[in-house]
Amino acid sequence: MEDTQAVxxxxxxxxxxxxxxxxxxxxMMVTVMLLNISNTGMxxxxxxxxxxxxxxxxVTQYDITWFSQVYLIxxxxxxxxxxxxxxxxxxxxxxxxxxxxxCVGALTRAVATSGLIADLWTQYVVSLIGQVVAPxxxxxxxxxxxxxxxxxxxxxxxxIATLICVTRSRPPTPPSRSAExxxxxxxxxxxxxxxxxxxxxxxxxxxxxxxxxxxxxCLTTLSQQMLCSKGYSDLFSGVVVAIFSIAGFVGSIAxxxxxxxxxxxxxxxxFANAFGVIFGIMLMEVYLVPGQHALLIISSILFGxxxxxxxxxxxxxxxxxxxxxxxxxSTTLIFVTGQILGVLMNYTANVLSSDLPPExxxxxxxxxxxxxxxxxxDYSGVVMGLMGVLTFIVILFTVFFRTPYKRREVEQTxxxxxxxxxxxxxxxx
Length: 429
Hints:
This protein is mainly α.
């Protein structure tokens, strides 16, 4: 574990308080990653093979889009329930309930498509695995159940990790002064919600991050349908989305390192959002053109690095803005806003899609080897609209976003000196 000593000076007296960051937090992080991968994977696992899935279930590709829409809509309906559980009963209860429901849902979905009851029922790290795994596993429509069993097994693994690793809601001692004071200074739940919703800087961050996240979720859901109409294969479409997910992971690390060295949290957030939008627009432009595999990969890397990489630091600054409000409230609101806007963008894209122009009808691969009467669609108008929305929002955010760092101000009230004490730790410790 790592010990940090804080020297508190009040009225001429000096008191040394030791805060401890336990190594078992890494086990908690891995558990949460498994939960996110399995849960998000189930939300988008058929999106990269939308036409094959539509053929398997004997529905339209629009109906398949609702597999992902349900994943985006339900968290909106239950977000306040989940934040209340975390606030009232603490983290351990919230994580265990979520993991159990995730596991039950995944296994039910797997069984439902395996043929046992399929005749009776004819349905935002993360995305990285699903976008590539699905096209590899599902080369023909009969392999859809196999895909669901893979994600069912992943959810079961996440549930086992939760049972082993999540044994308490917080460490025996607080990791920092802000963590200690934040817990004792928190108002009742409804008052915390009021504080969050009446913070102009947070509302600005909420809109900016929500729009960019919604855009990402829209691409995650509809990229295969957009790109197959331009002649790109299911596997390549999945690779494009996986690339900006991988680049987002790398970008988040790089952005965090720069922020850690400069402490310019707000400026870096604005910078990364601006470049995320610029390269997102570049990516959309390339989506409109057939046969541009190299440009798609390059623009995916650039968009992912900034547009996806900015997400963790946006959550960080959200906590800074709303401190001492419980962290799950601000992060959940950002997450839910992205879900809502993702649903709206997906729905609008389906409504505004049009028939393929004659020059694309000979190169589209959406309906290749499909026995159902499905038609490929053109999303060019939708892409242009998304570019306009992104441009408008990021200009407003860059010009007007300003905020104090409330949590860091608490940390700066003490003189800090770091020492490290090596130790060993296990999941169950």
